[in-house]
Every structure is written in C-alpha cells, then in structure tokens.
C-alpha cells in the first residue's frame, strides 16, 4: 500500500520535535502536523524557564551538592506516591527517567550544544520526612537561553530534515481522527485551517478551508495537554483537591486543549490517571498578556509570609516553594480561590523570579551582563513592571494602607489590620534571635546554608515591618493551570497500549500526551524540572522505537 511517509508525528512541541529529530537521524520520512501556524513551532516549551532535573551534575558538584541515584529515586517515589494498578508502567518510566537524569541526559544535551546556568535551584522542597514529597537537594538546572535555548538544537535538526527531503512540515492541519488498515493505525485525517499570521501564543483562526488524509506505517501522538481548556480541567478535577476554582488563570495558550487525547482514546488507546494534574498556586495576572487569561507563576524564595484569603498563615510545611499540590489542596478547602504573599522590597528584590522565557530576558538572551545587572538591581526589571502595573500587587509604606489595598482587590474586606499586624509581629520577633520555633524561619536559615540560595535566592532573615526594608508589598495569588500528569498509557518503547494491555498497533505517544511517559511518570506530584525532560526522554524513545518499526 502506498504511504505518504514512514511516520506521522502529531504535535510540533518539544516532544514532537525530539521524536522527529530521531527519525531524521534514522533516515525515515516524516510528516509533522500541527494545528497552529509555523510561528508557534516549539509549542509550550518556548515559553518555559528551561528548567531541567539532573542528578550528580557538574553544576551540583561545583556547588558541593551531594546527589546520587538512590537519593533521587527515593525522592521521586516518595513524591509520586504511586498507588494504583495502572501505575505499573509509570513506575517503570520513573525508574528509567531517574537513570536517564543520572546518566546520559546531560552529556547528550551538552553534545547538542545546550548549556546551563551555573547556579542550581532548589524547587519543591517538601518539608515532610525523608521518604515523603520533595527534593532532598537542589536539582533544578536552568537552560542557558531558557526554553528557546533548549528548543534550538531540535528545531535545527528538524529543519535539516526538511532540507534533506525527509520532513514535511504541515502547519494549520488539525487532526480529527485516526484510522486503521489491516488492524494497524496508519491513517491520520483532519481539517486544514486557514493561514494565520497570529503571533506565537496568540489565538489563531479556526476557519476550515479543506480536509486532509495522510498515511504512514506509524503515528506518534505528542499533543495532549489540557491546561488551556478550563472546562476539561474542571471536569477532571479530583475530590482530593477540593472544589474546582471559580477563577483560573492559564499558564499555557488556548490551543493546549486536550482534544487529541480524546481522538486517540476513540481509536482504541487507553487513557489513565486523567485526574492527576499540576496547577500552580502562585499565579498572577500578566499585565501584558499574550493569550487569554494569561497568568505568570512566581518562583518564590522561602521568606514571604503566605496567608489565606482571611489573612491566616498557611499551615506547616506550606511555605513558598515547598509543596505545590499540598498547598493547592489546602487552599481549595478554605472556600476561597486566592491567597496572599506579604513581604517587603528587600524580599521581593532578592527572592522573586517570574517563570517563563519572556520574563527572563537576560537568561533567554544569554546575556552575562544582564544576569549581573539583575543581581545588582534592587528589584529586577520584569518584577518591577508587575509592581507598577500588575493587577494583583499592592505596594504601600505602612500596614494600614497595605490592608486597605488588599481589601480593595477582593469582593469583600476579609483582611483585618490588627490581626495581620499581630501575625507579622509574631513572625518578626522570631528573626532577631538565632533560636526559633517558627519552622518557616528555620527554613529560611536552612536555605541560606546552600550557597546558591544565599547568593541569589534568599534574603537574610529580617523584620518584615522594618521601615528600612520597605515598602511593604502584598501579592494576590491565583490558581494557574499548567500540566496534565496523566495521559495515554505507554510501555518503555512509547508504544500506546489498549485497555487489554496490548500495544495499539502503529501508535506511539510522548510528552504531555503520555503523561511524560507511561501515562503518568510523575504520579500525583512533580519534583519540577521534569516536564521538559519528560518531553525529551519520551520523545526520543518514541522516535527511536518508531524508526525501528517501519520497513
């Protein structure tokens, strides 16, 4: 039978590009389809901070971080908390991914020209016991060039495949069905959308101008996140996370709609762990939005006072940067969608980083001078822009004015000035003594024992109400959608499985569509720096396996 290509890859994000690059290296003919215009090549990864999870890296060793496979696997399994029959393959993917992060991952990327910022970050610190959630040591490595820097070598390899006649790029092709011949899925059908000049991330037209049908010996599905589809997010919201928020911000563009998951499921694929998802609790409305309900996540240091909507401190260990989903579960049990950071200018200047390539022009532009200027600034430029223009920021010289500003941002005045003053004053008393019973103050001091945190991420403990450290700042925090942790069940060759556990002939999946491997390699929680890496690892596996499967 005549085929249009050896393999069809659906989705031109990082996982799809990685799979296509591997197919090109194997000399296979590929059609890469995506519903968005060419200017959105690279998908969500373009907007990312470029964080990657490595274990035992040179960057860690230079910072005197002792890390090894056993510790990383302990952290992964304690964080994932696998507890279902369908976690069989996610467990295997988790073990394989930790091996990858300990082994060839960094050398492979370095060989492709990817470089890394020398200071390692410490995300998701947990705060429970040694076998519970969280990273025991810093493992968050920022790509020099952030998301675009990580995408660059894979875009280049795919473009080289186009030049060699091995790759056809078919943008504005929206897949609507997968078909079979002789039992194997070998046909991809869909609609051709009208050309669009929409800028990257902006909503593009859905006007249909035609239809298409492509045939190949194998199909790789790499489109699958639901973060831009709030209806799907709410439909699959689990009871363990409380009532779904009435207000959601989007950490991804609207085209991240999850529709491909349903198409694959109707073709016979098994979709598992759809109730597992990753949403951030430190979301702020982008004052200069690119897509609808565009939210930005604050990557906070440990010093901000985290309050619920009524002004009460969040319970231990729900400090900034410690347990994302534990915090989300607590928030959704309060009856309100929002929380607050209360801090001052000394803290925001040292501890606030905004996630995303566009919010970090120094790192994205690979500017050493820019990084130095950021370190020297009282407040980094992108953060200062939110202080000046952000709808969620209140900046005032005294606490009374701060509370009035906070209450003005909510439907009802929930914050009591006297109660908030007592809370802050009690916390401040714990900072003037080397001894404390306040576990957040202990965490602040513990963080400063790590040279990376002491240099650029954690302010020295001080009184929040110290006038010399002002002005005071309050930030209203919203729930921000981001990642789908469940997905199409796959074996270690990225073959998509059916309900009976057998492979669905001809179909592979990678990236978010496959829960970053197996249908949910993260289990219930992520250690961070593992989404991009999961796209790389599963995309590479899918590309290599599909290349071997075709004649």
From TrEMBL:
Transmembrane segments: none annotated. The keyword Cell membrane does not apply. Pfam families: FAD_binding_2. It comes from the Bacteria. The keyword Oxidoreductase applies. Keywords: Flavoprotein, Oxidoreductase. Residues 6-532 form the FAD-dependent oxidoreductase 2 FAD-binding domain. GO terms for molecular function: oxidoreductase activity, acting on the CH-CH group of donors. This is FAD-binding dehydrogenase. It comes from Streptomyces spectabilis.
């Amino acid at each position: 039978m005549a085929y249009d290509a050896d393999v069809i890859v659906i989705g031109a994000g990082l996982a799809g590009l990685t799979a296509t690059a591997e197919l090109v290296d194997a000399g296979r003919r590929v059609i890469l389809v995506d519903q968005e215009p060419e200017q959105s090549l690279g998908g969500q990864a373009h907007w990312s901070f470029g964080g990657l999870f490595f274990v035992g890296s040179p960057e860690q060793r230079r910072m005197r971080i002792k890390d090894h496979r056993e510790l990383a696997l302990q952290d992964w399994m304690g964080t994932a908390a696998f507890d279902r029959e369908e976690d069989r393959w996610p467990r295997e993917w988790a073990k394989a991914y930790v091996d990858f992060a300990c082994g060839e991952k960094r050398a492979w990327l370095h060989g492709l020209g990817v470089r890394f910022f020398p200071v390692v970050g410490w995300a998701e610190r947990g705060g429970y016991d040694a076998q519970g959630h969280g990273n025991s040591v810093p493992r968050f490595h920022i790509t020099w060039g952030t998301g675009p820097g990580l995408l660059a070598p894979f875009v280049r390899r795919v473009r080289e495949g186009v030049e060699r006649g091995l790759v056809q790029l078919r943008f504005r092709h929206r897949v609507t069905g997968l078909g079979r011949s002789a039992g194997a899925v070998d046909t991809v059908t869909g609609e051709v959308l009208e050309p669009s000049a929409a800028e990257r991330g902006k909503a593009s037209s859905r006007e249909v101008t035609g239809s298409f049908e492509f045939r190949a010996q194998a199909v790789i599905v790499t489109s699958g996140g639901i973060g831009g589809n709030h209806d799907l997010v709410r439909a699959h919201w689990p009871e363990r996370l409380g009532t779904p928020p009435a207000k959601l911000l989007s950490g991804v563009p609207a085209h991240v709609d999850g529709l491909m998951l349903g198409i694959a499921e109707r073709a016979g694929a098994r979709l598992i762990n759809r109730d597992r998802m990753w949403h951030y609790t430190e979301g702020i409305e982008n004052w200069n939005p690119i897509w609808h309900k565009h939210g930005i996540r604050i990557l906070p240091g440990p010093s901000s006072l985290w309050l619920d909507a009524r002004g009460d401190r969040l319970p231990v260990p729900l400090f900034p940067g410690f347990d994302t989903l534990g915090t989300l579960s607590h928030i959704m049990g309060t009856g309100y969608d929002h929380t607050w950071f209360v801090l001052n200018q000394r803290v925001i200047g040292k501890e606030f980083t905004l996630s995303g390539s566009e919010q970090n022009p120094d790192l994205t532009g690979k500017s050493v001078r820019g990084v130095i200027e950021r370190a020297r600034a009282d407040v980094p430029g992108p953060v200062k822009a939110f202080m000046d223009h952000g709808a969620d920021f209140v900046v005032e010289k005294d606490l009374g004015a701060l509370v009035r500003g906070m209450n003005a941002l909510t439907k009802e005045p929930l914050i009591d000035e006297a109660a908030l003053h007592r809370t802050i004053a009690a916390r401040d008393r714990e900072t003037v003594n080397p001894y404390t019973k306040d576990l957040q103050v202990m965490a602040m001091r513990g963080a400063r024992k790590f040279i990376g945190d002491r240099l650029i991420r954690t302010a020295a403990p001080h009184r929040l109400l110290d006038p010399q450290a002002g002005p005071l700042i309050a930030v209203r925090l919203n729930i921000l959608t981001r990642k789908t942790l469940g997905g199409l069940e796959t074996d270690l060759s990225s073959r998509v499985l059916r309900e009976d556990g057998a492979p669905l002939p001809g179909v592979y999946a990678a990236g978010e569509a496959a829960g970053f491997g197996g249908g949910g390699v993260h289990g219930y929680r992520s250690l961070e720096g593992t989404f991009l890496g999961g796209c790389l690892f599963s995309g590479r596996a899918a590309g290599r396996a599909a290349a071997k499967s075709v004649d």
